[in-house]
């Protein structure tokens, strides 16, 4: 078994497309900025984040048509220089809600939300100390 992607169901596809592509700097697979589907990948690694129009998925599963309530997902991205990356994405329109701050002695994090309210955690892994 292989994890192919994490897919977020969104209602404002264009806003989320701009957030993951233009703000966070992930690479879109096809350039389908109006949807109904797009996969984004970081410069390294094989994991991906995909967006899918919620109304399209509701055609398959009726229950998905209901508006999402509360935090239903947390997208985690690892970055090498957390402070610099947060400064960069803030200039591109992101609002950092928390951090950068230590989470453990081995990790620093920052948190923000995408236009749909999905939580995004940015992680900077620190060298083991000891």
UniProtKB/TrEMBL annotation:
TM ranges: none
Record Pfam families: Glyoxalase (PF00903)
Entry annotated with the keyword Transport: no
Domain of life the protein comes from: Bacteria
Gene3D superfamilies recorded: 2,3-Dihydroxybiphenyl 1,2-Dioxygenase, domain 1
InterPro entries according to UniProt: Glyas_Bleomycin-R_OHBP_Dase, Glyas_Fos-R_dOase_dom, MMCE/EMCE_epimerase, VOC_core
Keywords carried by this UniProt record: Metal-binding
Domain VOC: 2-125
Name listed for the protein in its UniProt record: VOC family protein
Source organism (scientific name): Streptomyces levis
């Amino acid at each position: 078994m292989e994890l192919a992607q994490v897919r977020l169901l969104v209602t404002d596809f264009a806003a989320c497309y701009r957030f993951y592509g233009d703000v966070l700097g992930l690479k879109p697979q096809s350039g389908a900025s109006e949807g109904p589907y797009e996969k984004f990948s970081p410069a390294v690694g094989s994991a991906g984040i995909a967006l899918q129009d919620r109304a399209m998925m509701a055609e398959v599963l009726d229950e998905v048509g209901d508006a999402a309530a509360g935090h239903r997902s947390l997208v985690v991205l690892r970055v090498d220089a957390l402070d610099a990356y947060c400064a960069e994405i803030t200039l591109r329109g992101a609002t950092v809600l928390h951090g950068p701050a230590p989470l453990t002695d081995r990790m620093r994090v920052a948190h923000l939300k995408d236009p749909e309210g999905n939580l995004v955690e940015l992680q900077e892994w620190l060298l083991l100390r000891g």
